[in-house]
Fold this protein.
Amino acid sequence: VTGKGGTGKTTVAAALAIASSSGGRRALLCEVEGRQGIAQLFDVAPLEYAERKIPGAGVDDGEVYALAVDAEAALLEYLAMYYRLGRAGKALDRFGVIDFATTVAPGVRDVLLTGKVYEAARRRDDAADFVYDAIVVDAPPTGRIARFLGVNDDVAGLAKVGPIKRQATSIMSMLRSDQTRVHLVTVLEEMPVQETLDGIAELRAAQLPVGRVIANMVRPQRMSERTQSALSSGSVDADAVAASLEAVGLPPRAADELIAGGLAHLRRHELQERQRALLEVGSTELLELPLLPDGVDLGALFELAERLAS
Ligand SMILES: Nc1ncnc2c1ncn2[C@@H]1O[C@H](COP(=O)(O)OP(=O)(O)O)[C@@H](O)[C@H]1O
Ligand SMILES: [Mg+2]
């Protein structure tokens, strides 16, 4: 799940993980940017580099696990797994080598982060079943997503042969396969919609599978057609509004402000409709999630999950 910052990427990723747990399934929700947004959202202790079940987050008998993928920890794990550098790896960490390796080239971080997601996606239990039925990644923002997911193309290009080449090629095959979808979250405003359209173009160019566009925080139109056309033609009778306000015990002097507020809402709504039209041209399957007036708590996440599921 990608999207411009602040559009609800983390919220939608969490709701999608909840929805993916229905029917007794097990979902893993991954954070890769070290923000602890998921822990805050579910009101649990900060996530670590160890998968942890989030109590009460599954649907029916389903389960939602969460993980904060950390590049340094992923590198240590990688060294331990492939080079049996258990204790030596820790020493590298102490000498700052791990830190160096993960900060010297931003691409290295992305290799490690996507590598961990790949590992979790392939992991099987003792009965040889996949441990997770679905993995949802709260991914980097739209401007970075194609590079983030495509980083293993570069690695595969650099390493001509050997295990690194094989691993990088396998990760890219998984990301390009039918198993993967990149969903884009946006709000119906100019900048995020433009970024979404650009993001879709970049993902397609990189042959990465574009999933759904999710328009989040969509404002419902609460005014009648009659009110809308009266407001836009400027034919609202301020005296009549003042009289109705007075009749229900509200201050009649609020009439002008109420009309101005109504007009602002109308303009905003028109903007929203224009942006929706742009997205409907650019991408076929637009999903909409409403702006929840009381913000997002666990109950609201379940509500959003239900809408995504349906
Ligand atoms: N559908 C919604 N209705 C109301 N508030 C929302 C909705 N989706 C997200 N928010 C709020 O918007 C803010 C940004 O959401 P967040 O998921 O953290 O965005 P991002 O991860 O893209 O930065 C948060 O305060 C969140 O609670
Ligand atoms: Mg976030």
